Amino acid sequence: MMIIMSMEATPEQVAFVNQRVIDLGFTPHPITGEERSVIAVVGNNPIELQDQFAILPGVDRIMPISRPYKLASREVQPENTVFPLNGFNIGGEQIVIMAGPCSVESRQQLLETAQAVKEAGGQVLRGGAFKPRSSPYTFQGMGEKGLEILAEARDLYHMPIVTEVIAPDQVELVARYADVLQIGTRNMQNYPLLHAAGESQHPVLLKRGMSSTLDELLMSAEYILSHGNQRVILCERGIRTFETATRNTTDINAIPVLKALTHLPVVLDPSHSTGHWEYVTAVCRAAIAAGADGLIVEVHMHPELALSDGKQSLKPETFAEMVRQVRTIAHAINRE
Amino acid sequence: MMIIMSMEATPEQVAFVNQRVIDLGFTPHPITGEERSVIAVVGNNPIELQDQFAILPGVDRIMPISRPYKLASREVQPENTVFPLNGFNIGGEQIVIMAGPCSVESRQQLLETAQAVKEAGGQVLRGGAFKPRSSPYTFQGMGEKGLEILAEARDLYHMPIVTEVIAPDQVELVARYADVLQIGTRNMQNYPLLHAAGESQHPVLLKRGMSSTLDELLMSAEYILSHGNQRVILCERGIRTFETATRNTTDINAIPVLKALTHLPVVLDPSHSTGHWEYVTAVCRAAIAAGADGLIVEVHMHPELALSDGKQSLKPETFAEMVRQVRTIAHAINRE
Amino acid sequence: MMIIMSMEATPEQVAFVNQRVIDLGFTPHPITGEERSVIAVVGNNPIELQDQFAILPGVDRIMPISRPYKLASREVQPENTVFPLNGFNIGGEQIVIMAGPCSVESRQQLLETAQAVKEAGGQVLRGGAFKPRSSPYTFQGMGEKGLEILAEARDLYHMPIVTEVIAPDQVELVARYADVLQIGTRNMQNYPLLHAAGESQHPVLLKRGMSSTLDELLMSAEYILSHGNQRVILCERGIRTFETATRNTTDINAIPVLKALTHLPVVLDPSHSTGHWEYVTAVCRAAIAAGADGLIVEVHMHPELALSDGKQSLKPETFAEMVRQVRTIAHAINRE
Amino acid sequence: MMIIMSMEATPEQVAFVNQRVIDLGFTPHPITGEERSVIAVVGNNPIELQDQFAILPGVDRIMPISRPYKLASREVQPENTVFPLNGFNIGGEQIVIMAGPCSVESRQQLLETAQAVKEAGGQVLRGGAFKPRSSPYTFQGMGEKGLEILAEARDLYHMPIVTEVIAPDQVELVARYADVLQIGTRNMQNYPLLHAAGESQHPVLLKRGMSSTLDELLMSAEYILSHGNQRVILCERGIRTFETATRNTTDINAIPVLKALTHLPVVLDPSHSTGHWEYVTAVCRAAIAAGADGLIVEVHMHPELALSDGKQSLKPETFAEMVRQVRTIAHAINRE
């Protein structure tokens, strides 16, 4: 960290801070400028320490140097994390397309959608059994019954399942049915849940919090990685901004930035990041063009009857057309 | 809701939408303007329904009319919710001051701070035993041992305890020790936790999510209220914006807006909303002047040694001075 | 507009509002719901009127129905605006690439860059002569001398020029040299400047304000269009959000949303929207894949010596590679 | 500045950067950590230089140390800037209240309002003659005629006038009538206007841009100060965030932060920062409690007939009551 002294700091204050760095076992590098002094502190200094120095007399502010995540960092692991899922490689040359309804609403609905997704070229089936809904008065998901239906669809169509888990004590149950555990945007900083998902050793799809920085997303990934669970997929799903024309703002920058900062696979969820099906295909093309490793898209047989997120779901034929367009983009940038 | 047809919608599309409203058991009120048609739908129409209409051909967009929360609304309950806590009334004429360290770090630290808070005029003791920290490598709290220390402080100084609970299966444990359950900013939309807190029938301090709208805060309160638990305190703790001079942006508008929209008590946390102790006292004065029912403030005997949030903690003497100033402001607006 | 009455509004208040609508010459459509009344007002009602109703007793809030822009709207003009620039069509099938340095720094620098841009396949040369800089102590541009150099480059390389104008009384001067007037992000709501640009009848590249909604961008375009100047190009250049990993957040949603709402051409500026040259090429690909009509990109022969924006400028060889990649994407979606 | 090398930087890259610092005439202080090297560069290094280093091979990122403003900084001038206006001191112990209509609409309207403001205890009269409106179809102000009416009101009621100027070539005209030039939120980074206002040597009320950081606000003040014009009043008027319950978010933190960073007077505009008259009084109390030097408030005799901003204007009696409440708060914190 850098300890920036204020312009009015006295030499005694600078000396006191310097001594304190030494007392705590670190090596200070004091630098005397024309305007002010700066003390560089070398070594791994936790954020608590930074806060403790921030309030010493004569200190203007602290600047951290190290990034707070290690295991997730490409500086630590330069090569991409690639792992197989049902014979398919996530994070490699192939583009993965995960699709399905927002919620599992019935056996028939899910099986029909699974078939449509499969036929259109999707590789992973998504569908929510436990739904975090902002209103207590709306459909909250089918629960374990929904998981059973998902498992049936997997067996029928040979597609791995990704589904959301919303509480730490549910992880075991959901992991029994699902191939990939989804941690949703509202739970990106639900640390007990991150712990439980880390311990499960199941692949995890970790969605960015709707107002989380990319550094915070990587810190949450670090929670999972620090339990020895290497199979984490990061998901950009739009962030909250002042713009109201769309449900969220798709942060397309996040794709190249994450690919630079981390070795983990990165996918994009255009359904939530736009909130309107009419914009989904364009944003899917953009995501792949920007270098995303895949997509997770909402598909519904009859969006006008959906129990949740109908407005942002693609119909099967629109989904199939999107897959075709995305494939062309993928070839244009030499991916499959 | 209002169904706004697009300017190019055909008469057939308008008729189709109108008929569908009828088919679903609602009453449509079609209005034909110069530019476009609008169909008003009277009655309680859930958000799913709105999404379903949003995608019908010829529909431009949907505008909801009803607010999605009921029990939390001042339209439904005009008089303030006031409830006693240790002989003190929350939500009434009195201003409540909750204070204490970010984390319980040791028995000595907590007891000393509790005494200082009591002497300076604080009414409720805060302190975290389970800490949601963004890094897996930082201090995560003392756990149940911390709760025991908090309970000891309560008995010694006759101050009720507010402490954070971060997982649904912890609620019972924390409720055994704490007088008020705190639900933190990262958990405002942790619905299993809101359910569990609702069922506990314990008073709940619900912090606004760092990027949650006031409507979303009230929806989360609705989750708790819908379990018959009436004792919910709302807490503004700063929101995330582009401004980086402070840790968060204190949304002071939230105080009068919440007091207008809901009957629930509203307090402000200036420690997190500013992130720097130098700004805390000014924002405390502002909160009370704006009509807040209380404050929750971080106090530490030795901020330069704190294991978390030292930068934003007041020392006991600064805290005591803040209480004096706030008392003057309270009298100026005829509160205690 | 819709006048939403509050739940406690009395019948007298509803009647009063209704009568006032009539008195002002509009037709009210009162709708009585279970919870509250709503009065729909048909016809073009300006925003002042909405504000005036908003404060009448018993009124909860006002919801506008009409969009505030007309000439810019695709509802009013369904077909794309396409116009020629130096034999090249903007807004049609062709993708336009505008490139050049942030600032004109010297004759040699500009001519070299112009040649490099031309050879790599760029169609329009950009370069700033008048620079809006946030610090009074930094390089403010070469002024008219810069315009002369730009004109020389145009004649030498047969490329039209786009350059920024920052004050209304400069429009005439800049229009004498430039083919396209650029209105920068800080001036999107500089109405005297929009007026002057509208009256000039010169093509205008209008950049989105860094915290402007798309509706506000279209309102600013409306200012120019309302002077009979039809040749307006909209430019997404990133918006300001909480994310600090990049200089701005590229709102890729803006591309399909603007293409749906308006008939005007839409281009993207990845240099400002990312702030770092390493991310520029990925975002260029994304923009074209999302349906943008072109790009405006910063190119510098020696970014490490640039007097402004060096960090986000492409070197000529990186620019040429970007153009190649973008061309492949364009073909993949059947554009040139 | 601090040049943070990446973890993989080679010793040659570190040496190259170090040499370049020397070549440019600065003194490098290289620090070798366990993870990475950092090179501290002492002295005033402009932002261009930082950008130039940012892109050298092996450099991870640059961290500036110095604040970019000097004249506006309290580090440079510790004592408050206080200046008289019509016998009243701005920036001292006294609280200044500026009030009046959003727009001058007629002679009668303005004179009546001026009288009401005067009688209620306001010290400065506000009113817009040139209005920056987001729609070209709404009332744009009375222009010079409005200035004449303002001047008449000043003479009649002995109140100085603050009014907005929106173009550099208007400054001379407006300065002929007005006592304080207002630069509005959309023009905070209109540099030609800042230059002209600086040269005029007239007091300036500078409003924060709706998405400007406090550092950017101070940089814009620096533009004016750098022309030798010392009389600048800063105005917080709400920032743009995701919250839609209010027109803007009042950043109350800005008050104590600005008082710490700068010696310039700071006032708050609660009319724009809330957008609704019902919240104005509470936010006025909060602003004064937080340490603001004054308020600028919209007052209208008949808000329901206002040609602009009626929703957020106080009626004279509400304004008078607000002044009474604010006076009580001011006394409570020992101000007048």
Overall pLDDT confidence of chain A = 93
- Topology-level CATH name of the largest domain in chain A: TIM Barrel
Can you tell me the number of structural domains of chain A? Answer: 2
Spatial arrangement of strands, main beta sheet of chain A? 7-8-9-10-11-12-13-14
Please write the CATH class name of the largest domain in chain A: Alpha Beta
What is the global morphology of chain A? elongated
Number of strands of chain A: 14
**Oligomer classification:** homotetramer
How much of the residues of chain A is beta strand, in percent? Answer: 15-25%
Name the biggest interface. A-B, 51 and 50 residues
Structural class of chain A: alpha/beta
Low-confidence stretches of chain A: none
CATH architecture of the largest domain in chain A, by name, is Alpha-Beta Barrel
- Ends of chain A: how far apart? 43 Å
Largest sheet of chain A: 8 strands, parallel, barrel
Tell me the series of helices and strands of chain A, N- to C-terminal.
EHEEHEEEEHEHEHEHEHEHEHHEH
Explain what the structure shows.
Four copies of one chain form a homotetramer. With 336 residues, the first copy, chain A, is of the alpha/beta class. Chain A has two domains: 2-63, Phospho-2-dehydro-3-deoxyheptonate aldolase, domain 1 (Alpha-Beta Plaits), CATH 3.30.70.1140; 83-332, TIM Barrel. Helices cover 36% and strands 18% of the residues of chain A. The first copy, chain A, contains eleven helices and 14 strands. In chain A, the strands form three sheets. An eight-stranded parallel barrel of chain A has the order 7-8-9-10-11-12-13-14, surrounded by seven helices. In chain A, strands 2-3-1-4 form a four-stranded antiparallel sheet, covered by helices on one side. Chain A has a two-stranded antiparallel ribbon with strand order 5-6. In chain A, α6 (191-200) links the parallel β10 (180-183) and β11. In chain A, α3 runs parallel beside α4, α6 packs across α7 and α10 (277-290) packs parallel to α11 (316-332). The two termini of chain A are 43 Å apart. The model of chain A has no long low-confidence stretch (mean pLDDT 93). Chains in contact: A-B, A-C, A-D, B-C, B-D, C-D. Chains A and B meet through α2, α6 and α7 of A and α2, α6 and α7 of B.
